[in-house]
Design goal:
Blueprint: H1 2-5, H2 20-31, H3 37-61, E1 65-66, E2 73-74, E3 81-83, E4 90-92, H4 93-100, H5 111-121, H6 127-138, E5 141-145, E6 153-157, H7 167-176
Antiparallel strand pairs: 1-2, 3-4, 5-6
Helix pairs in contact: 3-5, 3-6, 5-6
Bound molecules: zinc ion (ZN).
């Protein structure tokens, strides 16, 4: 299998979820009036990269695959094999699928939030603008349908796709435990009951 792909193959990489510790420290510092721009930019860009990966995977699932060699769009991707006409990058469709499965990289109902942050990211300059953009993104919630449950609808945080944590409940607990204070750029928000 591997020798078929030869030197044109490059590993398919997706941006990881952002570590809880980074966000926790960002909010702690912000609450004390400490503006740590290095940490802020790290978190802002980490979320941006993650959102870009989510948009890319969501597009791919819908048949628009982005080339991992030259970043062009591979037209008319066939189900079994991907090959970029521009740069020759290729991958088996099942390997491509395997690269994003079980990683919460499908946008689903939260897609508009990720699109919104990607667009907004390019317009943020000040500490305040960046903090507000991050805070808005990680506090987006949407309804979702639970399969085979008596109560079919539940609230799901977009942050479950963005922040590390074992499942939705842990991500909600994490959001609930973020630090706020008099000097915070952002205000505490309601976290839905779970
Ligand atoms: Zn290409």
């Amino acid at each position: 299998m591997m020798n078929m792909l030869k030197e044109n193959a490059s590993p398919i990489k997706w941006a990881p979820k952002v570590k809880q510790d980074k966000l926790r420290r960002l909010y702690e510092n912000d609450a004390r009036g400490m503006r740590d721009d290095e940490l802020l930019n790290d978190v802002a860009f980490g979320l941006y990269s993650r959102c870009v990966s989510i948009l890319e995977v969501t597009d791919a699932v819908k048949g628009r695959v982005k080339c991992h060699g030259c970043a062009g769009v591979i037209p008319h991707a066939r189900e079994d094999h991907l090959r970029c006409p521009a740069c020759g990058w290729e991958a088996a469709w099942k390997d491509y699928q395997h690269s994003y499965q079980e990683k919460q990289l499908f946008g689903g109902a939260a897609l508009p939030f990720f699109q919104g942050y990607v667009a907004r990211f390019h317009r943020t300059n000040t500490h305040r603008e960046k903090m507000l953009a991050i805070d808005d993104l990680i506090h987006q919630f949407h309804w979702y349908h639970k399969a085979n449950q008596a109560l079919p609808e539940a609230v799901r945080p977009a942050a479950a796709n963005l922040i590390e944590g074992r499942g939705m409940r842990e991500v909600l607990q994490f959001l609930d435990a973020l630090t706020y204070g008099e000097d915070s750029t952002v205000v505490r928000r309601m976290i839905p009951d779970r």
